[in-house]
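P.,

For your records, the input lines for the assembly:
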Amino acid sequence: MSLVDYIGKAKSVVDKFGIHVGDLIEIKTNSGSYIGRLLPRSHYEGADEFIVVKLTNGYNIGISVEKINSITLLESLENKKNEPPKTFQKKKDLPHVVLISTGGTISSKIDYSTGAVSPALTAEDLYLAVPELKEIVNIEVDVLFNELSENIYPEHWEKLAERIFHHIENGVDGIIVAHGTDTLGYTAAALSFALQNLPVPIVLVGSQRSSDRPSSDAFINLRSAAVVAGYANLAEVVVVMHSTTSDDIVGVFRGTKVRKMHTSARNAFVSINIPPLGFVKGMKYIENIAPIRTRNKNRKILLKNKFDKKVALVYSYPGLLSDIFTELINNRYSGILIAGTGLGHISNRLHKVLKSAIENDIVIAIASQCIFGRTNLNVYSTGVNLQKIGIIESQDMFPETAYVKLLWALSNYSKDKAISIFQENIVGEIIGRTYPETIFNR
Amino acid sequence: MSLVDYIGKAKSVVDKFGIHVGDLIEIKTNSGSYIGRLLPRSHYEGADEFIVVKLTNGYNIGISVEKINSITLLESLENKKNEPPKTFQKKKDLPHVVLISTGGTISSKIDYSTGAVSPALTAEDLYLAVPELKEIVNIEVDVLFNELSENIYPEHWEKLAERIFHHIENGVDGIIVAHGTDTLGYTAAALSFALQNLPVPIVLVGSQRSSDRPSSDAFINLRSAAVVAGYANLAEVVVVMHSTTSDDIVGVFRGTKVRKMHTSARNAFVSINIPPLGFVKGMKYIENIAPIRTRNKNRKILLKNKFDKKVALVYSYPGLLSDIFTELINNRYSGILIAGTGLGHISNRLHKVLKSAIENDIVIAIASQCIFGRTNLNVYSTGVNLQKIGIIESQDMFPETAYVKLLWALSNYSKDKAISIFQENIVGEIIGRTYPETIFNR
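C-alpha cells returned:
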C-alpha cells in the first residue's frame, strides 16, 4: 500500500465504487453533487473518514464518506494518460514569470495524478491546481530539486541562486520559488545576499497545509506569489505567505526579516522587527509605506553565491559547555554565530574558549535568541567583555538571518572584509533604530 | 570613575551643586520642584543629559539637566549611613513571603546608596524602592546569589530549589525569586520540575529596564509579584512580568510556558501555546479560566532537584554537520535536545549520526524552533524516520523548556523512566490539543 492510498472507511468506499486516485468522478450526497478528480489520501487525522476531490474550479473539497450516496466514474486516469499533453497558450500581454520548484508541501501534493507523495511539479499541474494563474502571468516551470526543505543545504542555495541569476539575465519579469516551509526563511535570507542589485522580484512561496487538505493555503499563496512576481513594484527577495487567520490576506515579507513562528498555522510566517513590506488581497498588491527597492529591468543583477565555508550556529543555554567550541576550533570552522540570551549574552564561563576561538581565526558574532529586538553589548558587563574578546553584534538580525549572512560573508570575502560587511546593512537586513529609514546598499 | 558616576552635562550639574549619589535633594525646575534621592547614572543613551531621582513616593523620575534651576542638599548619604538601620515592623495579619535574590537587573540597581552596580538586595533597600510593599506582605529577604542571569547554570538551579524547599517547609505563604531576565524562563522551568506538589506559589520576577531608568518596570513587577505570592489562589511556579505596553497590566505566566521574546521591551515575556494564567492589575490578581493548581498549605512539597547530567541543546539549521553530534557521543552526553525545524525535523544527512548517538545510550528529543505550535512526527517522511531511529517528541514544549525537562528527567530518573516522563505532562508543561483540559500530575 502506498502512503497515498485510502485507508479505513474511505478505502471501503473507494473500492466499492471501483475508483482510483486521479479518476474524474461525480459524487452524489444528500447536500448536492460534486464533479472532480479523486486526490490521494490526506495525511492528517480523520483521513480514513473522508475522501478528497479536486473540483473542476481548482479547489479541493473533503467529503465525509458517511454522506456519500453514490460515485460515478466519468473518466479514468488511465484514459487521461493517453491523451496528448495539454499546452497552455501564452498570452502576449501578461508578465513572464519563472517558477522554480525545489520541493516541499507546496510542490509535493499538487501532482495528484501520479499518486506519488513527492512528485515534481509541471506547468500543467500548476495550472490545473490554480486555474486562475494563467490569467495572471505566463508561467514557465523549472524543476530544480525535489527536497523537503529540512534537506535543503547551503550547496542548494548556490545552485538555486545561479539558476535564478540566469533566468533574470534572460529578462523575466519575476521569479517564484516554491519551497518547503521548514527552512524557507533561511533560503530567503541566503538568496537576499547571494543575488544583489535585483531588477525584478524573487518570490519564495510555500504552503503550511498540503493541497490535499480542504484547509490548504497552497492555492492562495501561489496565486498571490504570481501577483507579486508579475506586478508588484518591488525588486527584493520576498516571502509571500498567509499572514492573518483571514483567508484572503497574504503577507509580503522581506527575505531577511521573516521567520516561521508556528509549526502548523497558516499564518506561521511573521515579519521580525519591521512591518511586512505589503500585502496581497485578492489579485491586488497593496504596498506598505516601508522603504523598498523598486522594479527596474535595466538594473544589472549581481551573483555572489558562494556558501562553502564552515560556519556553526550555536545556541546558548544554561549548561552549555566549552567542549562544543573546542570541537569547532579543532575542526577549523571559519565562523560561529551564537544565539545568545537577552541583549546578546553568553555565560562568562565560556568567554575563555571564545577568546581562544577568535585567536584561532574564527569569526564570532552574537545574536539574540529572543528573536525580536536588537543586540546591545554596551549595557551590561557581559556584553562589554564579549566586545573586548572581539565578538561582533548581529544588531536587529535574528539568529537565522545572522547565521546565513555570516556564512555568506565569510564564503565570498576575506575575513576582515567579512567582519565589516557583517555589521553593515546591505540589503535591508539591518534597520536603524528609527525605522523607516532603510537604505538599500546593494 | 565608577560606572555609576554621572558623565557629561549631568556630571557638571551634580558637581556644581556638590551633591552625590544617595543624597536626599530638592530640585527646582520651571515646571515644579521634586524631593528625592539622587540615583546613579542610567546606563542608557542620553544618560549624560539627565539625572535620575527616586521620589519620596518610591517612583523614579529623570530630569533633564537643561531644565534645572537649582538643587538643594537636604540630607547627605554620609549622614544617613550613620543613622541606626531602619527596621520594618511586621504586621501580623499580612502574608509572610520570602524574597530570594539571585542577581540581575531587578536586584542590581535598587541599592543605589552603595553606588555599586551589582549590590546585594536587603529588605530595607526593597522597602525603600517599593514602599507600598510593606502594606502588601511581610517580606524576608534571602540573598542567595549575585549573578547576571546568563551566568546562572544548572548547579544554581539545584541550590535555589533546595533553598525554596526549606522556606516552604517552614510554612511561608509564597516565594518571590528576583532573577535576571536573560535566563529567567529556563530557571522557571527548572523550578517547575524540581519542586513538585506545591502548597503555595513560587513567583519569579525580573525587570527589563533597571530601576535607575525612568521607564523601569522593576517596581510594578515587584509589587505585582508580592500580590501573587501573598494572595493569588495558585500554587505553581510562575513568572510575573509586564505583559502589555500599558503600565498597569502585569502577566502571570506558567513557568514552563513562558519565553523572553524581545531583547529590551518591557512586555518581552510571552506565554507560549497557552494564555497567561492571570494578570495583576494594581493590587488585584485576576484569574483567567485556565486550569491551575490552587493553594493548599497542607500539601507536602517534594524536592527533585538534581541537574547533574550532561545534556546538549542543538539547534538545527541548513549547514549543520555531524561533527557536533560525534563530539557529544565521544564526550558521553546523556541527552540531546534538538531544536528542529517545522513539525520537528532535521536533515536526513544527520539521521545516521543520530542513530549512532542513540545506540551509544544518548536520549534524543526533538522540539521545534518555530517556538509556537507542537511537534508532529507523523506527517512527513522525515518525522517518520526520526521516530524509527528512536527520537522522541517534545509536543508543545518549546526548545528551552524541553531541554530543561530532558536534563531534569535524565538527572533524577533511570534512562527508561526519563524517556517516558519526558513525554508525559507532569506540571502543565504539555497541554492537549483541546485546551483547556490540563491535568496537573505532580
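Two observations worth noting. Residues 104 and 180 of chain B are 4 Å apart (CA to CA). The longest strand of chain B covers residues 68-75.

Regards
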